Amino acid sequence: MITTHVKPDADALGSSLGMANYLIKKGHEVQVITPSEYPAFLHWMKGNDGVLVYGEDTEQQCQEIIDQADILITLDFSRLSRINQLGDMVKEASGFKVNIDHHLDPEDFADFRLWNTGAAATCELCYELILALGDEALIDKDIAECLYAGIMTDTGGFRHPNTTQNVHEVVAKLISHGADNSRVSKEVYDNNSINRLRFLGYALSQNLQVLPEERVAFFALSTDELQQYSSKTGDTEGLVNYALSIEGITLAGLFKQSSDGVKVSLRSIGKFPANEIAAKYFNGGGHRNAAGGRIDLTLEEAVARFKSVLVAYKDQLEEEHRKL
Ligand SMILES: [Mn+2]
């Protein structure tokens, strides 16, 4: 059984299906279970049709598979709370537990852990695991493209500071194993619906707030605004990066109202600790330059909290900008 975090992104699904395709080639019987649905722009991955999505009607089936699994491979998350209801099932399961991940603060639930916060993506670690097992020859086009997708998106298209020499070496290998980098990029990035583009236009022209003195820019979207453009899961994906792309901005935020409070995404440049703000003030965490959380407040209250927090970081916000 292979599982990954809620609302799987390309690294989550790519590592899951990359490992699944590899293990099937090794003769294993594999079932991938995701804690929730994921965006349609990931459906091209080989093995997508066989993924079991946890839900009310699949709960029993998930429970049985998890109970019977000899090996449970958990990918791209470090705490069992990241897989919602599946967390308890995995915790109670008797099979051998594997965790492969690059997030901070791992919980100690696995029997074997391949954990490296210096890795750009879980897919990078999966590639290294396959290599360490002496199975590089088994990496085919399908496996290579799953893994490539995760590395591509977790490095922001090979632009973030986590894009190391090793990242380029790994993706070069994946291309040599058949990954069509241009196709993967097109599948993942060039999938805008007209509504999504119009929503982006609205968000940029009407919603974006810039605090030039503080070197901060952010969006604060209400449920009404999100519904107006029939925003689906994933439709605000990448939005926060537009705020970070503004000249002179050190920290960018996206505040999204939902049925259970406000979802917060933070992005930063350089050494500015977005994860510290996410952890201290928004019940979240993540990487230094990309973090998130959720808080049970109104949208206005969440934004006010964010603004009040910035005072303590004034010097750091300025300093990271100066270093550029
Ligand atoms: Mn990841």
Write up what this structure looks like.
The structure is a single chain. The protein has 324 residues and is α/β, with parallel strands linked by helices. It folds into 2 domains: 2-189, inorganic pyrophosphatase (n-terminal core), CATH 3.90.1640; 194-323, Diaminopimelate Epimerase, Chain A, domain 1 (Roll), CATH 3.10.310.30. It has 13 helices and 12 strands. The protein has helices spanning 10-25, 59-68, 86-92, 122-132, 141-154, 165-176, 181-189, 194-207, 223-228, 239-244, 274-281, 299-310, 314-323; strands at 2-4, 32-34, 52-53, 71-75, 96-101, 112-115, 209-211, 216-221, 251-258, 261-268, 285-286, 290-295. A 6-stranded parallel sheet has the order 3-2-1-4-5-6, with helices on one face. A 6-stranded mixed sheet has the order 7-8-9-10-12-11. α3 (86-92) links the parallel β4 (71-75) and β5. The mean pLDDT is 95. It binds manganese (II) ion (MN). Manganese (II) ion (MN) is lined by residues 11, 76, 102, 121-122, 154.
